Every structure is written in C-alpha cells, then in structure tokens.
Automatic annotation (TrEMBL):
Region feature (Disordered): 1-94
Keyword tags: Nucleus, Repeat, Ribosome biogenesis, rRNA processing, Transcription, WD repeat
Comp. bias regions, Basic and acidic residues: 1-56
InterPro entries recorded: Beta-prop_WDR75_2nd, Quinoprotein_ADH-like_sf, WD40/YVTN_repeat-like_dom_sf, WD40_repeat_dom_sf, WD40_rpt, WDR75
WD repeat start-end pairs: 622-663
Chain ranges of the WD repeat-containing protein 75 second beta-propeller domain: 554-834
UniProt xrefs under Gene3D superfamilies: YVTN repeat-like/Quinoprotein amine dehydrogenase
Cited Pfam families: Beta-prop_WDR75_2nd
Record-given protein name: Sporulation protein
GO cellular component, one term: small-subunit processome
One record GO biological process: positive regulation of rRNA processing
Record-level Gene Ontology MF annotations: RNA binding
Subcellular location: Nucleus, Nucleolus
Species for this entry: Verticillium alfalfae (strain VaMs.102 / ATCC MYA-4576 / FGSC 10136)
Length: 968
C-alpha cells in the first residue's frame, strides 16, 4: 500500500529533498494541529483502545486490498474468495450495484411475435421484448454469456429465431456452442440448453420437422473447429435428456467456414454461405434420419447476407423449357447481398443446380441477376419487394422484374438488419446508432421507435464492412473514455456524447463523438440529440480515396451549478490516412497547423432543455500551436468554468451581458444576450508553455497530464498538473489568481483524476491517495495493479465523488472488465466492490442525488447506490418488474361490463325513469401502460399519496372529457 492511516505526517514514499511552500496561515494551522495532537495524547485509555481498534481495522482492510490487487498480474481479475470477502463487507454497509440495463443491439435480425404485437430485440447481453403499440420495454431477459467471471473476451451472440412450433419461445445461440431456448413471454432462465459437439457455432437456424408424427424444433448449426472442415449439423431434443444430432454437410477444404446459414420453415431447403461461395441443399428423411443433398458453387464476391423464398411452380418465375431433370412443384429463389455492394438473385436455383448435374449440362455455372446500388457491404436483404439496406442511411426497395428502386432516405443511422412482419404489413429496421423502428409498409412511416444509449461500443462480432479489405481503419475497441454528465438539478437526465452511428464513431484514426444525447433514466428512453460540432450524418462521408471523413470528438462537458449553462470542448485533427505519404516533419507541421480545438458555451433552455450556442473560443489554450485542453471543471457555487491546458495555464471563464453602444443586447424573445470570456489566467509553476520541458536530442518533449476540481464553496481550485511522476497539486485562489499552496508528491505516474470532498482531496494516478488538507497529512492510499498499456489504457481509470453521501467511487480497468469500488474518505475499507464484465467508459454523479451511474463499452448502464437512500439514482424497470405487462382477459372485461349493466338497470328502475343510453356517446376508456407506470412508479410505497388521491387519479385516466358544444 502507498498510504497509511495513523496520525503521522506524510507517508514514507515522500521525497525528503522536496519541500512544500508554506505561508503564515499554513504555519498557524500546523501549530494548531500540534496542540490538538498533544491534547489527543491526554485522552482516556478507552479512547486509546478505540483508536487502536480502528487503526487495526483499517490496517486489515488495507491488507485485504493489497492481497486482492497485488497478488495477480496486470490482466487478471479478483479472486473469488477475496471478492466475496470484500462484497460481504460492502453489503454490511448497505451499498449495491444494480443489474445492467440497456446495451447495444447486436447485428442480429429483430424478431416479430406471431401476432406482430411484440418486437424482440437481441442485445449483446440480453434479449428485450418491446410492445409495438407504444414502444415500451415489456421484458428483459439476461443471457448467461459470461462464465466463471473471467477477464477475457466473452462469447458473442449469433442470432435469435422464433420457434416455429412454439411461438412463445425463442432460440438464442452463442459462439461457444451454447443454444438456449427462452420463453419470451414470461421466462427468466432458459427452458432448454443445447451444446454443440464441437463447442463452436458460426450461425444457426430453426425449422419444424415431423418426428413421430409430431412437429419438433430442429436446429441446423454451422460449426467449425480450428483446422477442421466446416459442417452443418442438425440437432433435436428427444425427450428430456437425449439430444439427437446428424451431420448433413462438410465443406471441401478446412478454410471454408459457413458463416451464414438459413433454412425454410419446413426444413426442406438449407442454404449456407462461406468465404468463396454458396451451399444449397435439400433435406430428406423421417424421424431425424435426415439426409442432405448439397450443391456447392463459387460466387464472385463474399456473401454478407442472404434470404430464401419458396413459391409454387405456378406462381414462381419461368423455368427453362428443356430440363434434364424433372422440376419439383416448388420454386426456391435465393437472394444474396455481398461485401462490395452487389445483390445477386438466383431464380429457381435448385432446378438449375440439378440440371447442371446431368450428363450433358448446357451451362457450367449458375447465372444470376445482378442489382447494384450500395457503395459498401449489403448488410441486410429480405424478400417482400426486395428490401435491402447497407452502410448508407437509406432503405432501398427493389422491384425485381424491372430493377426499379424506391428509397427511404435520411434514416438516423446506417441499416444493420431488416425483417418483414408475418403479415407483410410492417418492416422492422435495426440501425447502427443503437435504435430500431417498425415502419408501416403502406405509409412508410414509423409506428414504433426504440432507442438506447448511442455511445461507442466495442464490436463483439466482425463488422460486415470489414469482410472486404478497404482503405481506412475500423477500431473494434472503444479507444477513449466517453464524456458524460448528469444534470445538476435532475439526476434522471443523463447526457452522453455520441456519434452519428457505430460505423462513423469507430472508423478513422479518431473516435468521433460530435453529438450530445439526452437520456431519461426514469423511462429509459432517448429524449433528444443535438450536434455540438460539425457532423455529416447522411451525406457521402468518404473521400475520393475511400478514407472516411472524420468528425470532431467532444472531449469534455460540464454543466454549471444552476444547470443553465453547458461548457464543451471539441477536438479535431487531420486523419492519419491523409498525411501518410508526407515526411515526418511535414506531417507534424500540418497536424499542428490544421488542428482545431474549440471551447463552446451553450445556454440551456428552461422549457425543453434545448441548447443554444452563446460563445465559441478558438484554441482556448495555445502557444505556437493549439494545445490540448486537459481538464474542464464547473464551479459548484457560481456559474463559471475553469479549463486546464497543456500550455501550463489555468483559465477561469465567466459570462457578462452583451452591450452595444451602452445598451443591453436582446434576442427575438426579449431576453438579454450573454457572452463568455476569460476573466483570470494562472500559470502552473515553471510549466508555462510547451517548449520549456527539456527533452533529449531527437526525442519529443515529455508528455504532461492534468486534472482539477473546485472546492465546494468555489473559493479554491485544486490543480494537479505536470510531467510524469511530478506529483504536484496547486491550490489556487479563484478570486485573486494567487497560488496559495503547493502540495508535493500527491500522485504518481500520470494523473487521471482529482476530486474534492472537503476537507479531503482524492487523486487517482498509478495509485489512489486521499489527503486531508486541513490536517496536512495523507489519510490513506490504495495501490492499483500494474497495467499493460497496450491492452489496458490507463485513461479508463475513473474517479467520481458523491457529495450527498460523502463517498467516492473508483474504477480500475482490466483488459475486458472493470472493477468498481466505493469508499469513505475517512476509512480505507471499501463500502462496496464489484467486478463488471465490461470496460467502464464513463462514471458520473449528480449534486441533486446520491449514488453513481457507470456506462460500459457495451452501452449498458449500472447504478451504484446506497440501499437505504430512497433519493438515490435509480434506473427504469421493464413493465414486467412493475407488474404492468399482463393484460386483462376479455372474458373478465365482459363479465364486469355485465355486472355494471345489471346495476344500472336496478338504479333506473328504482328512480322510475327509463332512459335509453345512446350507444354513440358511450366509449370504452383506453389507458396506456405508460400512464399507469408514471402513476404507480412515481414514488416508493411509503411515500405514495393517499388511497383517495390515487383513486381520483386513476378515475381521471378512465373518464373522458365532454365534447365542447358548438353554437347553432
């Protein structure tokens, strides 16, 4: 450990040659501390015993943490035994981490229920059921993907299929060979689990085949072990325990893996695609004694997606007049989408393949019709007037006979998947901005829209665009932390920096994020999106050379304490692909000359929380070139901000009212206009300027890091800045700009974050240190595990304070997972410590509520809260958890209506009046589930309104307002 908990000044790792500057008030505080320590020595023996017990407890906690995090290498996680000990300690203090919510929709076709009333979306960690009528989340079922809590790449979800025999069940497959059967209406755990013989799976599909005169689900799986041939295997569960399997096809060469597999609903035809061609086969046999007759032929391009259609011979397209083989009564049409944008249509492909097998075939290869519109890979293609979608934000409808196209352009993101509803009345479209919509085929308008957190997320499977090697690079991992913030006045509003889509964010040399997404944690829906920098969402976003046009990245965001102002910093540099052919000197000069860094101030509307740009500062920190903005902080007591740049300067920004010729400038609504400017500039010691750092000849100057935070009253600014292992924290007076004090040896390595929780300052670098400023001593420290910079970027270590509960949370990154721990500044024993199976990309808290919210690289949200605190941050729940997913049976409704009619007749008979009710004026009240959820989920049970108030609120939803009478 690097810290200690006794009352001795300074830890042993302080450099004795370094001295901290002290002023007169500092000496006075030191004398007061000495007098207090002298008084402490004169306390009673009981007090000494309590102190020694407390120190022993802290020492044991530090020992546990040391064993926990020092006993393993850089890329390993916590041992189960040690983790359970810490978790039990945390649970005794009443802190918990919630189950994850949200996530990124996987590149898997959405699934309609048999009645098309529900839409089932597959995420990387769960399947989620949404209501088509109102877009509400009905149910969330976690997928048991992670095993043994290991820090390693998790298996990826392959696809999801609705059971053709039992429509209430879905089959979900995993790349490690596990295939689960879930009841999507009420299930939590899988009803059945199939495990392939090879423990691998590339794709699978489900058909209904008769077994002993009964229909059973038969799962066709594409498998391939390393150095083995690719196979297609059929699986079916016989009884409760016996799993029957049958190998139907093997590829010719080991390097051929069938990565796309489709079958007809009756299992008669199976079509697969490998890297060089297409495999088409017919399945025959009874009672799982299945046999496959397959044809394998090459295609001109790699196949990304395909779809089948079976029609009768009378309704199908025409076939050649002379056939060597008698054609079947069915016509199989196959359409494929390829990696270079082509679409090929094979009409009556089975008849053509059988004719080529004859003694004198007239053609040696299968002819196909070609359609080409997409610039890059065709990500999805489906029958139903031939709908296709690709890397463009456009849905294309093809008329097969004439090749005429109809477009639905300007969608929010590039199309990933398309599905046609069972009745053909709707299209379900999954976009790469983590949203999905259901579009009416008659009006081509969305009737359902589902949107999650649209932040950058790691790729769990290979993107289809990368199947063909292209110019430019696509990162499969999130490269930088994601800026995010909770509203200071409303902790249910989360603001996250996102891009125009997953493809746009992960392409190029820079991870772009020019858009601010506002997300409601109560309803777990996206509220709005607004561009904070220039974007190209639907235009042609590639250059003539094929390189993606990069967009700026938002690096910092911060709200003012009154939530009326938002400050952002965006950064853009020329893409590396544009300057690869230049000399190193010319390349560096061009990057410095063309780099763009902007500090922007936005006014937040009180009505709809929309943003309006008030001021833009070009290169807020610069020397002979624009310098990086290392930190942005908001004053918790006043509407002002501070920035720290790599030029060694701290600038404090404030606003003033605009005036023209002595008169206040106003907007069209009569509101005064403000502008922001720098009111104070403070240099950090001798580090001012970028050229003052000595560097060996032929080497670049040492890289510097920094972080800062205001004190709780805004009177001081704590700044950690310097080169590696500098360790200095500057305390700056925010009114005069004077550096009051310099604290030495406060951080080690590169500083990641500095937070203030009065009277403590907490620094996170290669270790965690809690320093008591008033007592002038190190409270305690936690040594973090060593990281391999190539696999675990240190930038994903996070630190955040919660001023409501007087706690702070720390995130330690590993290769594929993260560790979250919550501490009190007075005690090194963690209140809560958990391992998250994903890398945390953002950690935020709010001044209006206690607790923390973490965002991971799977676009999931986790809340870390104190159990006893009812005002803590909470995430929305599915309707199933709110008990609002069950619908009232029609019989029950009719029965209640009959009772009401009988009661009405009795009342009328008693009054002696016979009134006829006009059927045209009586209407059935329709109450949406969302309204009921807002009513009953507004507060916990003990804080709910009285029963009488709830009664009137419910009846208010059921009653209808009278129509306004019109004058004759």
């Amino acid at each position: 450990m690097v810290g200690k908990t006794d009352k001795k000044p300074r830890a042993g790792d302080v450099d004795p040659n370094k001295k901290r500057k002290r002023d007169a008030s500092d000496k006075q505080r030191s004398s007061d501390i000495k007098r207090n320590r002298k008084d402490e020595k004169q306390t009673t023996p009981k007090s000494d015993k309590r102190t020694s017990d407390a120190n022993e407890l802290k020492g044991n906690a530090l020992k546990v943490l040391s064993e926990l995090q020092n006993g393993e290498t850089a890329n390993t996680t916590i041992k189960t035994r040690d983790q359970s000990e810490l978790q039990s300690a945390g649970e005794s203090n009443g802190w918990k981490i919630s189950s994850p919510l949200g996530g990124r929709i996987a590149d898997i076709d959405p699934v309609f229920s048999s009645d098309a009333k529900n839409l089932i979306l597959t995420y990387h960690t769960s399947i989620q059921v949404y209501s088509v009528a109102d877009s509400l989340l009905v149910r969330r079922i976690l997928l048991p993907i992670a095993k043994d809590n290991k820090d390693g790449p998790a298996a990826s979800v392959l696809t999801t299929h609705l059971s053709p025999v039992e429509p209430d069940f879905v089959w979900v497959g995993c790349s490690d060979g596990r295939i689960w059967k879930f009841n999507w209406r009420r299930g939590i755990k899988p009803e059945d689990t199939l495990i392939t013989k090879s423990h691998t799976a590339l794709d699978f599909c489900v058909s209904a085949i008769k077994v002993n005169e009964e229909l059973h689900d038969v799962v066709f799986v594409s498998e391939k072990k390393q150095n083995d041939e690719g196979t297609i295997v059929a699986y079916c569960r016989k009884g409760a325990s016996h799993l029957a399997s049958q190998i139907l096809f093997k590829t010719v060469r080991p390097d051929q893996a069938i990565h796309v597999l489709r079958a007809t609903a009756d299992g008669k035809y199976v079509v697969g695609a490998h890297s060089e061609g297409l495999v088409v086969g017919t399945i025959t046999g009874k009672d799982l004694e299945l046999e496959g007759d397959f044809f394998n032929f090459d295609t001109s391009d790699i196949i990304c997606t395909l779809d089948l259609r079976v029609t009768s011979r009378q309704q199908g397209l025409s076939t050649p007049k002379k056939q060597t083989v008698k054609p079947s009564s069915e016509v199989l049409d196959v359409i494929i989408g390829c990696g270079r944008g082509s679409i090929f249509l094979y009409n009556d492909i089975m008849t053509k393949l059988q004719s080529m097998r004859g003694p004198k075939p007239k053609q040696k290869e299968v002819q196909a019709r070609k359609f080409h519109w997409h610039r890059r890979a065709v990500r999805s293609v489906k029958w139903s007037r031939d709908v296709s979608g690709g890397s463009e934000n456009t849905l294309v409808l093809w008329q097969v006979d004439t090749a005429i196209t109809t477009y639905l352009p300007h969608l929010p993101g590039a199309i990933e998947n398309i599905v046609v509803s069972p009745s053909g009345a709707h299209y379900a479209v999954h976009l790469d901005d983590n949203s999905a919509m259901v579009i009416s085929t008659s009006e081509m308008k969305p009737v359902t829209y589902v949107s999650g957190i649209q932040s950058a997320a790691r790729y769990f499977a290979q993107p289809k665009d990368t199947l063909v090697k292209r110019v430019g690079e696509v990162s499969k991992e999130v490269r930088h932390p994601i800026p995010a913030a909770l509203s200071p006045l409303d902790a249910t509003k989360l603001h996250v920096c996102v891009g125009t889509g997953q493809q746009a964010m992960m392409s190029g040399s820079q991870q772009s994020a020019p858009i601010l997404q506002s997300f409601d944690l109560d309803s777990f829906t996206s509220v709005s999106k607004q561009a904070l920098a220039r974007t190209q969402p639907t235009d042609v976003n590639i250059t003539a050379q094929g390189n993606p046009i990069s967009e700026p990245a938002i690096t910092h965001i911060a709200f003012s304490s009154d939530a009326r102002w938002l400050a952002t910093v965006d950064d853009w540099s020329p893409p590396t692909g544009d300057i690869d052919n230049m000399s190193p000197d010319a390349k560096e000069h061009l990057v410095q000359e063309r780099r763009e860094i902007y500090l922007k101030f936005w006014s937040v509307s009180a009505e709809d929380e929309s943003l309006a740009l008030t001021s833009r500062i070009n290169s807020p920190h610069s020397t002979s070139r624009p310098e990086t903005v290392l930190a942005l902080a908001a004053d918790p007591a006043a509407p002002r901000f501070a920035t720290l740049g790599d030029d060694g300067l701290v600038r404090i920004w404030h606003f003033k009212t605009r005036q023209t010729d002595g008169l206040t400038s106003k907007d069209t609504k009569g509101q005064s206009l403000q502008s922001w400017s720098c009111g104070l500039t403070v240099g950090m010691g001798s580090h001012v300027g970028a050229d003052v750092i000595p560097a060996p000849e032929g080497h670049k100057a040492a890289k510097r890091s920094g972080s800062m935070s205001f004190s709780e009253d805004g009177s001081s600014l704590f700044v950690a800045f310097g080169s590696r292992d500098d360790g200095t924290v500057y305390i700056v007076d925010t009114h005069t700009g004077e550096t009051r004090m310099m604290l030495e040896n406060m951080w080690k390595g590169d500083v990641r974050s500095l937070q203030v929780l009065s009277p403590y300052i907490v620094t996170l670098s290669n270790d965690l240190r809690v320093y008591d400023v008033v007592a002038d001593e190190l409270q305690y420290g936690v040594k973090l595990p060593k990281r391999d910079a190539s696999s675990v970027p240190a930038a994903f270590a996070h630190l955040q304070v919660d001023k409501k509960s007087r706690t702070f949370a720390m995130v330690v990154p590993f290769t594929y997972s993260s560790q979250i721990a919550v501490f009190k500044p007075e005690d090194p024993q963690p209140l809560c410590i958990e391992t998250v199976p994903h890398r945390i990309t953002s950690l935020v808290s709010s001044a209006s509520s206690s607790g923390f919210v973490a965002l991971d690289d799977a676009a999931q949200l986790w809340s870390v809260t104190e159990v006893s605190d009812q005002s803590a941050i909470s995430l929305a729940k599915p309707l199933e958890d709110l008990r609002l997913d069950t619908t009232v049976e029609d019989d029950a409704i009719n029965g209640d209506a009959d009772e009401d009619d009988q009661a009405s007749e009795i009342d009328f008979a008693t009054d002696g009046d016979n009134m006829e009710l006009d059927d045209d004026e009586t209407h059935t009240a329709i109450v949406s589930r969302q309204k009921l959820a807002e009513l009953f989920d507004a507060a916990p049970a003990f804080a709910m309104p009285s029963i009488e108030d709830m009664f009137y609120k419910v009846t208010g939803l059921l009653t209808t307002k009278p129509l306004a009478s019109t004058a004759a």
